[in-house]
Every structure is written in structure tokens, then in C-alpha cells.
Amino acid sequence: MSIKSTSPIKAAADRYKPRPKFIVFEVESLGKFNVNALSDLAGNASARVRENLVRQVKVKFPIILKEGLNVIGGVDYRHEQFKFDMASEPDYPLFQRFEDKPLKRISTNFYLKKTLKNKRFVFAYLNNSLNSDVPQFNNFEDQLKASVSFIYGKQANPNKQIGYGVSFGYDLGQPSVFPLFIYNHDFSLHWGLQLLLPKSAQLRYSPSNSMHFYAITELKGASYHIQGDVLNGFDQLEFRRSSVRFNLRVEHEIYDWLWFGVTAGYRVPINIFLSEPRKNRRDSLVEVDAQSIQYYNFSIFIVPPTKLYNRAKGSG
To answer: Which residues in 139-164 are b (16+ Cβ under 10 Å) and which e?
Structure first.
């Protein structure tokens, strides 16, 4: 039995889906955790990270919104800082270099979705970012990190999408290419599943149009260009890391267009290391063994007002 697009059931299903976020302000804090640094050059040392604080601003804006083609742009700024104590070697170069000296990321993003014949579609994502302790135009190529994803899929029915693709990025800390599989399915008015494997899996429960709960597993990684003296004889290095995150999140409406979100999660590191630019983990100069730890994320974000959002969907 098919459901007509004009039926009350279909309209209700649309109401219980989250609206897109246009502006997001986030603060994330990790609990205290221990790290061990291992290096043939600098020796071994241990310390406790007593503070790992992340602040982030994300802005998205429509570029093209018309039937069959959507192009969305975005700009992000991320600021992360560390503070250490209980160091076995207070003068250890890694701890000295990262003590209260932030890592910064300035990104531009582009999302494209094009509808094809026979309910097919293509989706493309491009991210360019300057990742560094001191973002600047010197050593621009070493600081620039690009991520690209491409997906070809089918709209199996109004509530289900299936697709395949390929991704290049830094989810494993170092540049890597891997296949993608997507499966998006809104099972009912309240429940939805989004898979972007192997990058993320998300189960959503929406009791109303003003509250959403999520259970999320995701693979996250990054690579930062580090300038200045870190190790003797090396004035430019790459700090690379990746982890798997498990979290529970709730989002709730404050006002029609203003929402807040709270996340409680657990981070399991996969790899953390320092290497020369264009080298990988096998050539690492310092490897870091970090403890798995809980973290918390708080966000305030702006979404399209309900009337404007419904009008835009109706004009599609």
C-alpha cells in the first residue's frame, strides 16, 4: 500500500524530521585522561591531560535551491586547546609544544545533490580547510587539507534512500580512500536510521517536532600542520589522530528557529602520532597512546522557521 504525498500521515512524517542547521555554536569538553608518548628521538614520557576544550562555529547557507538541484555552502572555525599536568618529564617537547597552544581549523564546505531520472541521485561533498597551530599563507600547501565524497544512489520510496560511493579524507588521521555505503530510512513518524558506512551510523527517535533523540557511532579524524621547533631538527610536522566515538544526543526547541543540543559520549582513540609532512604512521616520530574517555558537547543552533521551511519544501 503506497501513501499519497498529500495524506495527513505523510505530512505528519515530515513534521517529525529535524530541520537543517544554518548556524551552530558548540563547546566540547573531555574528561581528564592519561597519555603516553613514545619516541626514539625524544624518548618516552607520560602526562595527564587535565583540560581538552573545543570551541566551534559552523555556518551553512544556500547557494542554489531549485527542483532537482541543491547546492549548499558552509564555513567553519574550530579552536582546540590542551593543558597538561603530572608530566613524568616536564620538559618533554610534545607536552611543552601543546601546552595551552591551540590547534585551529578554518574550513569551507560545499554540498551538492542532483536528482536524476528514475529516482536516482548523485551527492557530492567537498571540504577544504587550513589545519594548523598557526594558520597562515606560509606553507599553504602543507596546511591545506581536502576531503571529498561522492555518492550515487536511489530514492527507493519517499522515506528510503540507498547509495554507494567513495570518500577521500582524514578520518583515519592520515590521507586515505575508502568506499561508502549509505542507507537512510524513516521507519515511522518517530523513528529514523541514517547509515554512512564506515564513517557513521545514527538512530533517531523524535517524539514530537520539537525534540529529537540520537544514538550515534562515528569515525572522526584530523591532521594538523605544526610549525616551529617541536623536535630537534624538525621545524614542520604533522599531528594526526583518529578515534571512534559513541554518543547519545538530545536536541530541543527553545523557540521556533532557536534550538539547543546536549551530547554525552565516549571516545576510543585509534591512532595519534607526529610525523613529517607527507609521511604516515609507519614513519612516525612520536606515537601517543591516549586513554579512552568520556566527553560532553553543548550547542546552540539556528534552523529555518517552520513556515519558511514548509514553504520551501512545497515549492521544490
So the answer is: eeebbebebebbbebebeeebebebe
Q: N- to C-terminal Cα distance for the chain?
A: 25
Q: 281: burial class by Cβ within 10 Å (0-12, 13-18, 19+)?
A: middle
CB 301, CB 261: distance < 8 Å: yes
- Per residue in 74-84, pLDDT (tens digit) is 999 999 999 99
| Cβ-contact 142, 225 below 8 angstroms | yes
With a CB cutoff of 8 Å and minimum separation 6, the contacts of 141 are none
Q: How far apart are CA 35 and CA 29, in angstroms?
A: 17
Q: For residue 99, which of 110, 91, 111, 108 has the smallest C-alpha distance? A: 91
Cβ atoms of 293 and 266 within 8 Å: the answer is yes
The closest alpha carbon to 162, from 134, 190, 197, belongs to 197
Summarize pLDDT for 86-114 with one digit per residue, the tens: 999 888 988 888 887 889 999 999 999 99
Find where cell 599536568 sits. 85
Q: Residue 315: which pLDDT band, with cuts at 50, 70 and 90?
A: very low
pTM of the model: 0.89
Gap between the Cα atoms of 19 and 252, Å rounded:
12
